[in-house]
User: Fold Regulatory protein RepA from Cupriavidus pinatubonensis.
Amino acid sequence: MTCLADLRADMNAFLTNPPPELDFVLPGLLAGAVGTLIAPGGMGKTMLVTQLGCELAMGLPLLNGTLAVPVSEPKKVVLFLAEEDMTIMHHRILDIVGVLLPGLKRMSSKDRSNLRKLLNTNLCLYTLAGHAGLVSLEPGTTIGDDVMAACNGARLVVFDPLRRFHKGNENSPEHMSAVVQQSELVAHKTRAAVLLPHHASQHSISTGTGDIVTAGRGTTALPDGVRMQMNLSPVGRELAKEWDLPDQALGQYVQLKGTKANYAPRADTVVLHRQPNSGVLVPVDYPAAKTTSKAARVKNGDRT
Assistant:
């Protein structure tokens, strides 16, 4: 059992040894820490976390390299999906793999077999629709041994959406702080990064402020307590103009923006195109001419 004395920092060790490298799983989200992903319903939260899970499981660059995290070896990912069933996720996995590996049909049988092995070994996907209560972050309860065992050795653990994993009042700072503490317990014991997708508030949706740190539903205890937050929200006219997006298809685009990062600079905004038939999110390249212009301004000392 840990006692307070065990947690006292050794100043001599701090001052005489270099610190370990910071181990980021997602932009701003360290292994062993808790973060959130805020978005309105239907914006693509589950698709996004499933894509990230597939990429981590296969050791691929995150969102085709647009998320600035070093590529790691294939790692275990655990997705607890409270609103999805097996049939829907069967379709989504095939759609995602088809986009991540467009040459899948041209691969050798050996390469396809290796891919299947990586996903089968590393992507632990639990479809919990209709099975509420099997996985819980409810304060005052013990996180089940089977849940902790499922998360053991994981690089990333996702509880999607957060609302389905506790029964409390989202407007209660005390309750939501305790939910964060339960999530921290999973992160601490497993050394996994824990991501909590959460719905945006009606106010942020109606006012077009879905890209700010307080866009989530309920008390600010959630964004205050986590170490990293990303927001997935619609693309507004100003951002669409900056990225040269077509007005007639603007509804097919979303933006992923880092809104909080305690241990790193906030991640740059990424624009994603939702594929019409599958909903798979494909990164959009920033216009080349504007990239060149921006680089020139930075070189001349203008970083705005």
